[in-house]
Design brief:
With 321 residues, the protein is an alpha+beta fold. It has three domains: 63 residues, no CATH class; 102 residues, no CATH class; 107 residues, no CATH class. Helices cover 26% and strands 36% of the residues. It has eight helices and 15 strands. Strands 3, 4, 5, 6, 7, 8, 9, 10, 11, 12, 13, 14 and 15 form a 13-stranded antiparallel beta sheet that branches. The chain has a two-stranded antiparallel sheet with strand order 1-2. The longest helix has 19 residues. The two termini are 45 Å apart. This is LysM domain-containing protein.
Length: 321
């Protein structure tokens, strides 16, 4: 019989090993007893002195295929363009925004992003201010970003190009179609924004896509866990919320052979007057071989200054080519 000699950890027993390796308890015990020496026989439970257990090689190899080999995520050095479908919902006011976004990693520190048309409640934007903002947004994309090895954004690399797009293409278009005192005031503010976008770094990247897609998830997770903090601006309540978060990197792959990383967080803002604390729960699904993000889904429950609850959901899925 082909077998694998498995080291038994101090906190393991026959039941936990059988469950971990997805094998019937008695089949595992009988397999071991048919191979081992007399002193290694397992009667009903594993003797305290026993250091190893023999498991079928097929069971071990199958387990290897369905688990990650160490608790570490490594950012891909580059990848071709990926198109993601994104849905953002404010369930408290029945508002849904969806669009597609394209992400391409040119090298280990450069990412290019393009955002497509925005829809509100499954319709193209209609309100003048929303229409104005969408046209203004065209100056930002394509957006070239410099990132760290663990995926955090450092700076905008093509700010000069963005400024030129604003000045030569988008600004004249807005002036032509939207003539009002309000438009003049908005353009005045946008001039300084687009001519030096890195000064407005946080305002550009506080959206949930940027906050969580570029969260520094590519790191080590001792025993699958890691504690950290996240600061997130939420448009729904016009506030920054600080969360204490726990990352859990699952050892077992999903049924689709992908890696799962979960984040749970609770508000830690001691200065808040609210009795209720904001919470977040996000799930990353990553490709096993490349660690590219396949999907990202999450929920945030938060409260405004009047203690009114807001239920926000975010969904991002890789679309087939």
């Amino acid at each position: 019989m082909d077998f694998h000699k498995l080291k038994i950890n101090s906190n393991e027993n026959i039941d936990t090993i059988a469950k971990e390796y997805d094998i019937n308890r008695e089949i595992l015990r009988n397999f071991h007893n048919n191979i081992c020496s007399i002193s290694e026989i397992i009667p009903k439970e594993i003797p305290v002195y026993l250091e190893y257990i023999y498991i079928p090689i097929e069971t071990f190899l199958d387990y290897q295929d369905k688990t990650i080999h160490d608790f570490k995520l490594i950012a891909p050095n580059f990848f071709d363009k990926i198109t993601y479908g994104i849905i953002y919902k404010n369930n408290s006011v029945n508002k849904q925004i969806h669009y597609t976004i394209e992400v391409e990693k040119l090298n280990n520190s450069t990412v290019i992003i393009n955002k497509n048309k925005t829809y509100v409640n499954n319709h193209p934007v209609k309100k003048i201010i929303e229409e104005l903002l969408e046209k203004t947004e065209r100056a930002i994309y394509p957006l070239l970003l410099e990132s760290t090895t663990n995926n955090s954004i450092i700076r905008i690399k093509n700010e000069k190009e963005i400024g030129e797009r604003w000045k030569k293409e988008i600004k004249p278009l807005i002036i032509e179609y939207y003539q009002s005192k309000l438009t003049d005031e908005i353009i005045e503010k946008l001039d300084s924004f687009f001519l030096n976008p890195n000064q407005y770094f946080e305002k550009i990247f506080h959206h949930l896509f940027y906050s969580f897609y570029f969260l520094p998830i590519y790191t080590s997770y001792p025993n699958g866990n890691k504690q950290s903090t996240i600061s997130q601006f939420l448009n729904a309540i016009n506030q920054h919320i600080h969360f204490d978060v726990n990352f859990k990197l699952h050892k077992k792959l999903t049924r689709a052979d992908k890696i799962k990383l979960e984040i749970r967080g609770v508000e830690n803002n001691s200065l808040s007057n609210n009795d209720n604390k904001a919470t977040l729960f996000f799930t990353y699904i990553l490709h096993k071989e490349t660690h590219k993000i396949f999907s990202l889904t999450g929920n945030i429950i938060c409260y405004d200054e009047n203690n009114k609850q807001y239920d926000l959901t975010f969904e991002m899925y890789e679309l087939k080519k």
